[in-house]
Amino acid sequence: MPVNSGLPAGWTIEHLRALSGDPSAAPLSFDRLVVVETAGQDDYELLQPDVILAFHELCLVRDDGEWFMGQLDADGSVICWASYGSDLAGAIRSL
Q1: Spatial separation of the C-alpha atoms in residues 28 and 59, rounded to whole Å
Q2: 49-59 per-position pLDDT tens digit
Q3: What gap in Å lies between CA 9 and CA 83, rounded to an integer?
Q4: How much of the chain exceeds pLDDT 90, in percent?
Q5: 33 contacts 77 by C-beta, under 8 angstroms
Q6: Residue-by-residue DSSP string for 8-73
Q7: Domain of life here (predicted)?
Q8: Cα-trace Rg, the chain
Q9: How many Cβ atoms from other residues are within 10 Å of residue 80's Cβ?
Q10: Are 28 and 18 in contact (CB under 8 A)?
């Protein structure tokens, strides 16, 4: 698999790692549960991401053009807590 596959168009793994300051940042496969918590609700909303990026135990997940930040759990699932908008660079700066 090419090193830049799984990244958003126009992004390279080198750019992702440089901007995040995480030399191990990498795209993840989609074979995992990805949800977002909704304040005041007991249930999670299921996300259908087209990009999942891992930064140690944190992740940025793109669903319908929005970047959600979340935690990578031990079982491989991702629990997101908020949307950080449509700008990947801005979302990375929030890590």
Answers
A1: 9
A2: 999 999 988 99
A3: 20
A4: 81
A5: yes
A6: PTT--HHHHHHHHT-TT-EE--S-S-EEEE-TT-SSEEEP--SEEEEETTEEEEEETTEEEEEEE-
A7: Bacteria
A8: 13
A9: 23
A10: no
